[in-house]
Amino acid sequence: MSRTLKFILALNLLVLAVLTFAYPHLMVGPGKLIPGHKQLETDCFACHTSFIGVASPKCVSCHKPADIGRLTTKGKPVLKPLTSTPFHQELVSQDCVACHSDHAGVKRYHLKGYFDHALLKKETSNQCQSCHKSPGDALHKQITGNCAQCHTQQKWTPATFDHAKYFVLDRDHTATCATCHVSNDYQRYTCYGCHEHTPANIRRKHVEEGIRKFDNCVECHRSANEDDIKGGKEGGGDKREHE
Amino acid sequence: MKKSLWSGHVLPFTLLLGLLAAATLVGDYLLHRLNLVWVGRYMGIPGSLLIIASLYYSARKRKWVTTGDPKSLLKMHEFGTWLGSLMVLIHAGIHFNAILPWLATVAMGVNVVSGMVGKMLLSQSRKHVQGERDRFQLRGMSKTEIEKTLFWDAVALGAMTQWRKVHIPIFIVFAVLALGHIFSIFLFWGWV
Predict the structure, then answer these.
(1) Are residues B112 and B78 in the same domain?
(2) Among A174, A239, B72, B181, which is least packed, fewest CB within 10 Å?
(3) Residue of A1, A27, A103 with shortest CB distance to B99
(4) Contact A31 B37 (CB under 8 A)
(5) Of the candidates B64, B96, B128, which is a domain's last residue?
(6) ipTM over 0.95
(7) How do residues A139-159 score in pLDDT, each as one tens digit?
(8) B65 lies in which domain range?
Protein backbone atom coordinates (compact mmCIF):
# COMPACT_ATOMS: atom_id res chain seq x y z
CA MET A 1 0.00 0.00 0.00
CA SER A 2 1.43 3.39 -0.98
CA ARG A 3 2.04 6.11 1.60
CA THR A 4 -0.50 8.40 -0.07
CA LEU A 5 -3.16 5.71 0.13
CA LYS A 6 -2.32 5.05 3.76
CA PHE A 7 -2.57 8.78 4.50
CA ILE A 8 -5.96 9.12 2.74
CA LEU A 9 -7.20 6.05 4.58
CA ALA A 10 -6.05 7.31 7.97
CA LEU A 11 -7.53 10.77 7.29
CA ASN A 12 -10.92 9.32 6.35
CA LEU A 13 -11.05 7.17 9.43
CA LEU A 14 -10.02 10.13 11.57
CA VAL A 15 -12.88 12.22 10.13
CA LEU A 16 -15.31 9.39 10.89
CA ALA A 17 -13.98 9.16 14.45
CA VAL A 18 -14.46 12.90 14.96
CA LEU A 19 -18.00 12.70 13.52
CA THR A 20 -18.78 9.80 15.86
CA PHE A 21 -17.84 11.85 18.91
CA ALA A 22 -19.54 15.00 17.60
CA TYR A 23 -22.79 13.32 16.49
CA PRO A 24 -23.04 10.07 18.48
CA HIS A 25 -26.83 9.95 18.13
CA LEU A 26 -26.50 9.82 14.34
CA MET A 27 -23.34 7.73 14.06
CA VAL A 28 -23.95 5.00 16.65
CA GLY A 29 -27.35 5.66 18.25
CA PRO A 30 -30.01 3.02 17.51
CA GLY A 31 -32.65 5.44 16.29
CA LYS A 32 -34.38 8.52 17.68
CA LEU A 33 -35.19 8.87 21.36
CA ILE A 34 -38.76 9.20 22.60
CA PRO A 35 -40.01 12.83 22.42
CA GLY A 36 -39.75 13.26 26.20
CA HIS A 37 -36.00 12.55 26.11
CA LYS A 38 -35.19 14.59 22.99
CA GLN A 39 -32.96 16.98 24.92
CA LEU A 40 -30.76 14.02 25.95
CA GLU A 41 -30.08 12.97 22.35
CA THR A 42 -26.40 13.97 22.27
CA ASP A 43 -25.72 13.07 25.91
CA CYS A 44 -25.55 9.26 25.76
CA PHE A 45 -24.16 8.95 29.26
CA ALA A 46 -27.14 10.71 30.78
CA CYS A 47 -28.77 7.27 30.68
CA HIS A 48 -25.99 4.82 29.74
CA THR A 49 -23.22 3.64 32.01
CA SER A 50 -20.11 2.47 30.14
CA PHE A 51 -20.11 -1.29 29.44
CA ILE A 52 -23.13 -1.81 31.72
CA GLY A 53 -25.90 -0.26 29.65
CA VAL A 54 -28.87 1.59 31.01
CA ALA A 55 -28.96 1.26 34.77
CA SER A 56 -32.22 1.94 36.61
CA PRO A 57 -30.67 4.28 39.21
CA LYS A 58 -30.04 6.79 36.41
CA CYS A 59 -33.73 6.63 35.38
CA VAL A 60 -34.86 6.91 38.99
CA SER A 61 -32.74 10.01 39.54
CA CYS A 62 -35.33 11.87 37.38
CA HIS A 63 -38.36 9.54 37.52
CA LYS A 64 -39.12 8.98 41.20
CA PRO A 65 -41.05 5.69 41.46
CA ALA A 66 -43.45 7.21 44.02
CA ASP A 67 -44.42 9.92 41.51
CA ILE A 68 -44.70 7.88 38.31
CA GLY A 69 -48.22 8.11 36.96
CA ARG A 70 -49.03 10.92 39.37
CA LEU A 71 -46.50 13.71 38.94
CA THR A 72 -44.19 14.66 36.08
CA THR A 73 -40.41 14.86 36.59
CA LYS A 74 -40.99 18.59 37.18
CA GLY A 75 -43.44 17.90 39.97
CA LYS A 76 -46.61 18.84 38.06
CA PRO A 77 -49.67 16.56 38.09
CA VAL A 78 -49.95 14.17 35.16
CA LEU A 79 -52.98 15.39 33.21
CA LYS A 80 -53.40 12.43 30.89
CA PRO A 81 -52.02 9.34 32.63
CA LEU A 82 -51.37 6.34 30.40
CA THR A 83 -52.92 3.98 32.93
CA SER A 84 -56.00 4.52 35.06
CA THR A 85 -54.11 3.58 38.23
CA PRO A 86 -50.47 4.34 39.04
CA PHE A 87 -48.76 0.98 39.55
CA HIS A 88 -45.01 1.64 39.48
CA GLN A 89 -45.18 2.00 43.26
CA GLU A 90 -46.24 -1.65 43.42
CA LEU A 91 -43.30 -3.12 41.48
CA VAL A 92 -41.07 -5.65 43.21
CA SER A 93 -37.88 -4.15 41.77
CA GLN A 94 -36.71 -1.19 39.75
CA ASP A 95 -35.80 -2.71 36.39
CA CYS A 96 -36.89 0.04 34.02
CA VAL A 97 -35.54 -1.49 30.78
CA ALA A 98 -37.53 -4.68 31.40
CA CYS A 99 -40.48 -2.71 30.00
CA HIS A 100 -39.17 0.58 28.63
CA SER A 101 -36.92 1.38 25.68
CA ASP A 102 -36.20 4.89 24.42
CA HIS A 103 -34.51 4.38 21.05
CA ALA A 104 -36.77 3.73 18.06
CA GLY A 105 -34.47 0.94 16.86
CA VAL A 106 -34.70 -0.91 20.18
CA LYS A 107 -38.40 -0.29 20.80
CA ARG A 108 -39.39 -2.61 17.96
CA TYR A 109 -38.00 -5.58 19.89
CA HIS A 110 -40.29 -4.92 22.83
CA LEU A 111 -43.68 -6.60 22.80
CA LYS A 112 -46.23 -3.83 22.53
CA GLY A 113 -48.93 -3.78 25.17
CA TYR A 114 -47.31 -6.58 27.13
CA PHE A 115 -46.76 -6.22 30.85
CA ASP A 116 -45.15 -8.94 32.90
CA HIS A 117 -47.39 -9.17 35.97
CA ALA A 118 -44.61 -11.05 37.78
CA LEU A 119 -43.00 -7.62 38.28
CA LEU A 120 -45.82 -6.67 40.64
CA LYS A 121 -45.84 -7.37 44.35
CA LYS A 122 -47.80 -10.53 45.06
CA GLU A 123 -50.55 -8.83 47.03
CA THR A 124 -51.03 -6.33 44.18
CA SER A 125 -50.92 -8.82 41.32
CA ASN A 126 -54.09 -10.48 42.59
CA GLN A 127 -56.06 -7.25 42.70
CA CYS A 128 -56.84 -7.15 39.00
CA GLN A 129 -59.68 -4.65 39.30
CA SER A 130 -57.36 -1.99 40.73
CA CYS A 131 -55.87 -1.60 37.23
CA HIS A 132 -58.30 -3.42 34.90
CA LYS A 133 -61.94 -2.67 34.26
CA SER A 134 -64.25 -5.64 34.10
CA PRO A 135 -66.01 -6.04 30.72
CA GLY A 136 -69.58 -4.78 30.89
CA ASP A 137 -71.27 -7.93 29.58
CA ALA A 138 -73.80 -9.90 31.60
CA LEU A 139 -71.33 -12.66 32.48
CA HIS A 140 -68.68 -10.35 33.94
CA LYS A 141 -71.14 -7.97 35.61
CA GLN A 142 -72.04 -10.63 38.15
CA ILE A 143 -68.41 -11.45 39.00
CA THR A 144 -66.23 -9.49 41.36
CA GLY A 145 -62.61 -10.49 41.75
CA ASN A 146 -61.12 -13.94 41.40
CA CYS A 147 -60.33 -13.29 37.73
CA ALA A 148 -57.69 -16.03 37.82
CA GLN A 149 -60.53 -18.54 37.95
CA CYS A 150 -60.84 -18.13 34.17
CA HIS A 151 -58.03 -15.81 32.99
CA THR A 152 -54.24 -15.91 33.25
CA GLN A 153 -51.95 -12.93 33.82
CA GLN A 154 -50.20 -13.57 30.52
CA LYS A 155 -53.22 -13.12 28.23
CA TRP A 156 -56.87 -12.18 28.62
CA THR A 157 -57.82 -14.85 26.10
CA PRO A 158 -57.97 -17.78 25.84
CA ALA A 159 -59.88 -17.91 29.08
CA THR A 160 -60.95 -21.15 30.69
CA PHE A 161 -64.31 -21.47 32.34
CA ASP A 162 -65.21 -24.75 34.06
CA HIS A 163 -68.74 -25.10 32.81
CA ALA A 164 -68.87 -28.65 34.24
CA LYS A 165 -69.11 -27.13 37.70
CA TYR A 166 -72.59 -25.95 36.69
CA PHE A 167 -73.51 -28.33 33.93
CA VAL A 168 -71.47 -30.90 32.00
CA LEU A 169 -71.49 -30.18 28.27
CA ASP A 170 -71.41 -33.75 26.94
CA ARG A 171 -71.81 -34.81 23.31
CA ASP A 172 -75.56 -34.21 23.42
CA HIS A 173 -75.01 -30.73 24.81
CA THR A 174 -72.35 -29.24 22.51
CA ALA A 175 -74.67 -26.37 21.68
CA THR A 176 -73.74 -22.74 21.15
CA CYS A 177 -73.86 -20.54 24.26
CA ALA A 178 -76.91 -18.70 22.92
CA THR A 179 -78.97 -21.92 22.82
CA CYS A 180 -79.15 -21.89 26.62
CA HIS A 181 -78.04 -18.34 27.47
CA VAL A 182 -80.39 -16.18 25.45
CA SER A 183 -79.30 -12.58 24.63
CA ASN A 184 -75.79 -13.20 26.00
CA ASP A 185 -77.22 -13.20 29.50
CA TYR A 186 -75.01 -15.76 31.25
CA GLN A 187 -76.76 -15.12 34.52
CA ARG A 188 -79.81 -16.95 33.20
CA TYR A 189 -80.27 -20.09 31.17
CA THR A 190 -83.01 -22.14 29.64
CA CYS A 191 -83.15 -25.83 28.90
CA TYR A 192 -85.99 -25.32 26.44
CA GLY A 193 -83.75 -23.89 23.72
CA CYS A 194 -83.58 -27.22 21.92
CA HIS A 195 -86.33 -29.45 20.67
CA GLU A 196 -85.41 -32.32 23.00
CA HIS A 197 -86.68 -30.55 26.11
CA THR A 198 -90.08 -28.99 25.79
CA PRO A 199 -91.99 -27.54 28.75
CA ALA A 200 -94.72 -30.12 28.21
CA ASN A 201 -92.59 -33.27 28.31
CA ILE A 202 -90.45 -31.98 31.17
CA ARG A 203 -93.56 -31.25 33.19
CA ARG A 204 -95.01 -34.67 32.42
CA LYS A 205 -91.82 -36.53 33.43
CA HIS A 206 -91.44 -34.65 36.72
CA VAL A 207 -95.11 -34.88 37.70
CA GLU A 208 -94.91 -38.63 37.14
CA GLU A 209 -92.13 -38.69 39.74
CA GLY A 210 -94.10 -36.50 42.10
CA ILE A 211 -91.80 -33.52 41.65
CA ARG A 212 -93.72 -30.30 41.57
CA LYS A 213 -90.96 -27.72 41.44
CA PHE A 214 -88.74 -28.14 38.40
CA ASP A 215 -88.09 -24.65 37.06
CA ASN A 216 -84.38 -24.62 38.04
CA CYS A 217 -83.05 -27.66 36.16
CA VAL A 218 -79.36 -27.47 37.18
CA GLU A 219 -80.31 -27.51 40.84
CA CYS A 220 -80.74 -31.28 40.43
CA HIS A 221 -79.26 -32.00 37.00
CA ARG A 222 -75.55 -31.15 36.79
CA SER A 223 -75.17 -33.37 33.73
CA ALA A 224 -77.26 -35.41 31.34
CA ASN A 225 -76.38 -38.54 33.31
CA GLU A 226 -79.66 -39.87 34.71
CA ASP A 227 -77.79 -41.69 37.49
CA ASP A 228 -76.32 -38.43 38.74
CA ILE A 229 -79.30 -36.44 39.86
CA LYS A 230 -79.17 -34.57 43.12
CA GLY A 231 -82.32 -33.82 45.04
CA GLY A 232 -83.32 -30.17 44.93
CA LYS A 233 -83.95 -28.00 47.95
CA GLU A 234 -87.34 -27.02 46.66
CA GLY A 235 -88.43 -30.28 45.10
CA GLY A 236 -91.93 -29.80 46.41
CA GLY A 237 -90.83 -30.70 49.93
CA ASP A 238 -90.14 -34.11 48.63
CA LYS A 239 -86.36 -34.42 48.15
CA ARG A 240 -86.08 -37.45 46.05
CA GLU A 241 -83.90 -38.89 43.43
CA HIS A 242 -84.92 -40.16 40.05
CA GLU A 243 -84.64 -43.84 39.53
CA MET B 1 -13.65 -27.87 -24.56
CA LYS B 2 -12.41 -24.38 -23.79
CA LYS B 3 -14.81 -22.42 -21.58
CA SER B 4 -15.95 -19.06 -22.86
CA LEU B 5 -15.32 -15.91 -20.84
CA TRP B 6 -19.07 -15.70 -20.15
CA SER B 7 -19.68 -19.25 -18.91
CA GLY B 8 -16.33 -19.59 -17.18
CA HIS B 9 -16.16 -16.28 -15.35
CA VAL B 10 -18.94 -13.75 -15.79
CA LEU B 11 -21.80 -16.17 -15.15
CA PRO B 12 -20.39 -17.74 -11.95
CA PHE B 13 -19.53 -14.27 -10.65
CA THR B 14 -23.03 -12.95 -11.39
CA LEU B 15 -24.65 -16.04 -9.89
CA LEU B 16 -22.58 -15.92 -6.72
CA LEU B 17 -23.23 -12.21 -6.22
CA GLY B 18 -26.92 -12.59 -7.13
CA LEU B 19 -27.21 -15.50 -4.71
CA LEU B 20 -25.76 -13.35 -1.93
CA ALA B 21 -28.33 -10.60 -2.62
CA ALA B 22 -31.22 -13.09 -2.95
CA ALA B 23 -30.23 -15.01 0.21
CA THR B 24 -30.07 -11.71 2.12
CA LEU B 25 -33.56 -10.70 1.00
CA VAL B 26 -35.03 -14.16 1.65
CA GLY B 27 -33.36 -14.38 5.08
CA ASP B 28 -34.61 -10.93 6.04
CA TYR B 29 -38.13 -11.72 4.80
CA LEU B 30 -38.29 -15.04 6.66
CA LEU B 31 -37.09 -13.55 9.94
CA HIS B 32 -39.76 -10.86 9.74
CA ARG B 33 -42.45 -13.31 8.64
CA LEU B 34 -41.65 -15.83 11.38
CA ASN B 35 -41.41 -13.08 13.99
CA LEU B 36 -37.75 -13.95 14.57
CA VAL B 37 -36.30 -10.49 14.04
CA TRP B 38 -34.29 -10.87 17.27
CA VAL B 39 -32.29 -13.67 15.59
CA GLY B 40 -31.09 -11.16 12.99
CA ARG B 41 -30.06 -8.86 15.79
CA TYR B 42 -27.47 -11.41 16.94
CA MET B 43 -26.47 -12.70 13.48
CA GLY B 44 -23.72 -10.07 13.27
CA ILE B 45 -21.75 -12.04 15.88
CA PRO B 46 -21.36 -15.38 14.00
CA GLY B 47 -21.01 -13.44 10.74
CA SER B 48 -18.11 -11.39 12.10
CA LEU B 49 -16.51 -14.49 13.64
CA LEU B 50 -16.68 -16.30 10.28
CA ILE B 51 -15.04 -13.37 8.52
CA ILE B 52 -12.34 -13.20 11.20
CA ALA B 53 -11.72 -16.98 10.92
CA SER B 54 -11.44 -16.75 7.15
CA LEU B 55 -8.64 -14.21 7.57
CA TYR B 56 -6.39 -17.14 8.43
CA TYR B 57 -5.87 -17.51 4.68
CA SER B 58 -4.61 -13.91 4.47
CA ALA B 59 -2.15 -14.62 7.27
CA ARG B 60 -1.04 -17.85 5.57
CA LYS B 61 -0.58 -16.04 2.27
CA ARG B 62 1.70 -13.48 3.89
CA LYS B 63 3.54 -16.31 5.69
CA TRP B 64 2.60 -14.94 9.11
CA VAL B 65 1.55 -18.52 9.76
CA THR B 66 3.04 -21.57 8.10
CA THR B 67 0.51 -24.35 8.60
CA GLY B 68 -2.39 -25.18 6.27
CA ASP B 69 -2.77 -25.85 2.56
CA PRO B 70 -3.06 -22.43 0.87
CA LYS B 71 -5.44 -23.73 -1.81
CA SER B 72 -7.86 -25.17 0.76
CA LEU B 73 -7.49 -22.07 2.89
CA LEU B 74 -8.37 -19.88 -0.11
CA LYS B 75 -11.55 -21.92 -0.62
CA MET B 76 -12.31 -21.51 3.08
CA HIS B 77 -11.62 -17.78 2.82
CA GLU B 78 -14.00 -17.42 -0.12
CA PHE B 79 -16.76 -19.48 1.48
CA GLY B 80 -16.29 -18.05 4.99
CA THR B 81 -16.36 -14.44 3.85
CA TRP B 82 -19.36 -15.09 1.58
CA LEU B 83 -21.39 -16.75 4.36
CA GLY B 84 -20.16 -14.30 7.00
CA SER B 85 -21.13 -11.39 4.74
CA LEU B 86 -24.57 -12.93 4.24
CA MET B 87 -25.08 -13.09 8.01
CA VAL B 88 -23.86 -9.52 8.48
CA LEU B 89 -26.10 -8.31 5.62
CA ILE B 90 -29.15 -9.97 7.21
CA HIS B 91 -28.11 -8.48 10.56
CA ALA B 92 -27.80 -5.04 8.93
CA GLY B 93 -31.12 -5.38 7.14
CA ILE B 94 -32.99 -5.91 10.39
CA HIS B 95 -32.63 -2.31 11.48
CA PHE B 96 -31.54 0.91 9.81
CA ASN B 97 -30.53 3.17 12.66
CA ALA B 98 -26.99 4.52 12.81
CA ILE B 99 -24.58 5.73 10.12
CA LEU B 100 -21.38 4.04 11.34
CA PRO B 101 -22.58 0.43 11.04
CA TRP B 102 -24.09 1.19 7.66
CA LEU B 103 -20.80 2.58 6.38
CA ALA B 104 -19.22 -0.63 7.67
CA THR B 105 -21.79 -2.66 5.75
CA VAL B 106 -21.16 -0.71 2.54
CA ALA B 107 -17.39 -1.17 2.97
CA MET B 108 -17.96 -4.89 3.53
CA GLY B 109 -20.10 -5.11 0.37
CA VAL B 110 -17.46 -3.34 -1.72
CA ASN B 111 -14.85 -5.63 -0.19
CA VAL B 112 -16.80 -8.77 -1.12
CA VAL B 113 -17.37 -7.54 -4.68
CA SER B 114 -13.74 -6.48 -5.09
CA GLY B 115 -12.61 -9.87 -3.83
CA MET B 116 -14.87 -11.73 -6.25
CA VAL B 117 -14.14 -9.51 -9.24
CA GLY B 118 -10.41 -9.58 -8.52
CA LYS B 119 -10.31 -13.32 -8.16
CA MET B 120 -12.24 -13.99 -11.34
CA LEU B 121 -10.73 -11.35 -13.60
CA LEU B 122 -7.22 -12.00 -12.37
CA SER B 123 -7.32 -15.71 -13.10
CA GLN B 124 -8.84 -15.07 -16.54
CA SER B 125 -6.18 -12.49 -17.43
CA ARG B 126 -3.33 -14.70 -16.29
CA LYS B 127 -4.64 -17.63 -18.34
CA HIS B 128 -5.08 -15.38 -21.35
CA VAL B 129 -1.56 -13.87 -21.23
CA GLN B 130 0.10 -17.24 -20.58
CA GLY B 131 -1.79 -18.85 -23.50
CA GLU B 132 -0.71 -16.08 -25.85
CA ARG B 133 2.90 -16.34 -24.67
CA ASP B 134 2.92 -20.11 -25.31
CA ARG B 135 1.37 -19.63 -28.75
CA PHE B 136 3.98 -17.06 -29.79
CA GLN B 137 6.81 -19.21 -28.48
CA LEU B 138 5.59 -22.12 -30.61
CA ARG B 139 5.67 -19.83 -33.61
CA GLY B 140 9.36 -19.24 -32.88
CA MET B 141 9.14 -15.61 -31.81
CA SER B 142 11.95 -14.22 -29.64
CA LYS B 143 11.39 -13.31 -26.02
CA THR B 144 11.69 -9.58 -26.75
CA GLU B 145 9.20 -9.83 -29.63
CA ILE B 146 6.74 -11.70 -27.41
CA GLU B 147 7.03 -9.11 -24.66
CA LYS B 148 6.54 -6.35 -27.22
CA THR B 149 3.44 -8.02 -28.69
CA LEU B 150 1.95 -8.77 -25.32
CA PHE B 151 2.74 -5.32 -23.91
CA TRP B 152 -0.88 -4.14 -23.60
CA ASP B 153 -2.05 -7.51 -22.34
CA ALA B 154 0.62 -7.32 -19.68
CA VAL B 155 -0.53 -3.81 -18.81
CA ALA B 156 -4.10 -5.10 -18.55
CA LEU B 157 -2.92 -7.93 -16.31
CA GLY B 158 -1.13 -5.41 -14.13
CA ALA B 159 -4.34 -3.42 -13.88
CA MET B 160 -6.23 -6.54 -12.85
CA THR B 161 -3.79 -7.21 -10.06
CA GLN B 162 -4.63 -3.76 -8.71
CA TRP B 163 -7.69 -5.32 -7.07
CA ARG B 164 -5.48 -6.29 -4.20
CA LYS B 165 -4.69 -2.65 -3.70
CA VAL B 166 -8.41 -1.99 -3.44
CA HIS B 167 -9.28 -5.14 -1.52
CA ILE B 168 -6.90 -4.56 1.37
CA PRO B 169 -7.59 -0.82 2.01
CA ILE B 170 -11.33 -1.40 1.81
CA PHE B 171 -10.95 -4.29 4.20
CA ILE B 172 -9.12 -2.00 6.63
CA VAL B 173 -11.94 0.56 6.36
CA PHE B 174 -14.48 -2.21 6.95
CA ALA B 175 -12.52 -3.61 9.90
CA VAL B 176 -12.13 -0.21 11.60
CA LEU B 177 -15.80 0.74 11.11
CA ALA B 178 -16.99 -2.68 12.22
CA LEU B 179 -14.78 -2.47 15.31
CA GLY B 180 -16.22 0.99 16.01
CA HIS B 181 -19.73 -0.44 15.76
CA ILE B 182 -18.88 -3.43 17.98
CA PHE B 183 -17.17 -1.17 20.52
CA SER B 184 -20.17 1.16 20.64
CA ILE B 185 -22.44 -1.83 21.28
CA PHE B 186 -20.29 -2.95 24.20
CA LEU B 187 -20.03 0.60 25.48
CA PHE B 188 -23.75 1.38 25.48
CA TRP B 189 -25.59 -1.93 25.64
CA GLY B 190 -26.30 -3.81 28.83
CA TRP B 191 -25.10 -7.34 28.11
CA VAL B 192 -25.62 -8.47 31.67
Answers:
(1) no
(2) A174
(3) A27
(4) no
(5) B96
(6) no
(7) 787 777 778 888 888 888 888
(8) 19-96
